[in-house]
Specification:
By secondary structure, the chain is α+β, with helices and mostly antiparallel strands. Helix content is 24%, strand content 32%. The structure holds zinc ion (ZN).
């Protein structure tokens, strides 16, 4: 048990942003996502909102809060649809409690594959979010937690381009 936790915690969770800064996924957020890993045949997809902070006087971002699936979300082996209002409520609560420093940064979900890649439905969803969501910054981030790796993509709302972020070794 202890060994599993150590292995998860020692994983690289730093990614290179296109602006030269770096993005970090906080241990707690990572631990929650890893808890929903689809390592068994019966496991269905999970997902939620990712939230975090822009670090002052730097180009760095830290993802430190995520929401978890709620009971009215639609979950199956190969899809996750965020339906529950709970995600939005949590976001508003975090935003208020942090005096506006904890922001909406994007979405996460799991995939039943070791090294996750977005499906065509994911890409369509992400582009729709970039076009229609109201958020303050230029980019949104999309995490897919696979069984072995957690990968993250950066979406640019100016040109709707979606780029996978490189892990910093
Ligand atoms: Zn997906």
């Amino acid at each position: 048990m202890t060994q599993t936790v150590n292995r998860v915690e020692s994983k690289k969770v730093l990614y290179e942003l296109s602006n030269g800064g770096c993005l970090k996924i906080d241990k707690n957020a990572l631990r929650i996502m890893n808890g929903y890993k689809q390592s068994e045949k019966k496991d269905v997809e999970a997902g939620g909102i990712i939230m975090g902070r822009f670090i002052k006087n730097s180009k760095n971002i830290i993802i430190d809060k995520i929401t978890e699936p709620a009971k009215d979300d639609k979950r199956s082996r190969y899809s996750f649809k965020r339906i529950s209002l709970q995600h939005q409520l949590t976001l508003e609560e975090e935003w208020t409690n942090s005096f506006g420093t904890c922001n909406y940064l994007g979405e996460w979900h799991t995939h039943p594959e070791d090294y996750p890649t977005p499906s065509s439905i994911d890409l369509k969803d992400w582009k729709r979010k970039l076009k229609t969501d109201i958020f303050s910054s230029r980019y949104l981030y999309f995490i897919i937690a696979g069984i072995t790796e957690v990968e993250i993509w950066e979406g640019d709302r100016r040109n709707l381009e979606i780029k996978q972020l490189k892990k910093i070794k």
